[in-house]
Amino acid sequence: MNKIGFNVLAWSAEMSESLLPILDRLKEIGYDGAEFFIGGSPEESFKMVGKHCADIGLEVTTVTVLSPEENPISPDGAVREKSKERLRWVLDRAADLNSQVLCGPFHSAFATFASRAPMEDEYNWSAEVLHEMGDYAQKLGILLTPEALNRFECYLANTMEQLDYLLTKVNHPNVQAMFDTHHANMEEKKLGSAIELIAPKLGHFHISENDRGTPGSGHVDFDETFATLKKVGYSGWLTIEGFTRNDPAFANSIGVWRNFSEPWDMAENGYKLIREKGEKYGL
């Protein structure tokens, strides 16, 4: 069975002691790991949370985003250098957490648009940054998995075809693809064919409902999803990512204006869904 994770952004984007009982309960439910957002929390808090995860036997993956001031596809070389500085800091914090994977749309700045389609130079600039960061992450034992987002949150990589094109340019064994069923639900014609396209580069996978609520409560076709993951031999993480209004600052930053599901409903029923589909399709 693939390892199952849960992203604690359903509660908070901040690293603090308030996460510890949440992590304990996720472990009790049966989760193999937790996923954390690496933002602006104090450096010492990452080691504290990482130690707690290690103590209770919970593995770790991480996610991050970049601001317009740290945009890897900026025409300004100084801004692109800032993206590398930021990603090095993020990777150091991921190492403090003992993270195995750093995922997210760090191929470009989050929700930053140029009022046009992506240019070849932007793919090249992004690939240059990602390749260099692949070297840095590899030394830390962390896999980089850039993520395709929907058209309302980025323009460089909305589909697996675009992400595959970018990663071919990156050409680094430690930089692979991430697939998120929420974004794919909007941007791909068929989930199965999109998974098959990216399968040779697939390194991380988010199980997310169409509205970011409890997986299985909406219209994402998880039978097609799990059947295809089995077909392509995917053996990585299956991590639930759902959002709430519990952390208002983070929710406001990503346009979450209502609660789609309660966090523990997502965690408990989402876990059951993954176990049931995993057993049904032999993952």
Automatic annotation (TrEMBL):
Pfam families xrefs: AP_endonuc_2
Gene3D superfamilies: Divalent-metal-dependent TIM barrel enzymes
Signal sequence range: none
Occurrences of domain Xylose isomerase-like TIM barrel (ranges): 23-251
Sequence intervals crossing the membrane: none
SUPFAM superfamilies found in the cross-reference section: Xylose isomerase-like
Name of this chain's protein: D-psicose/D-tagatose/L-ribulose 3-epimerase
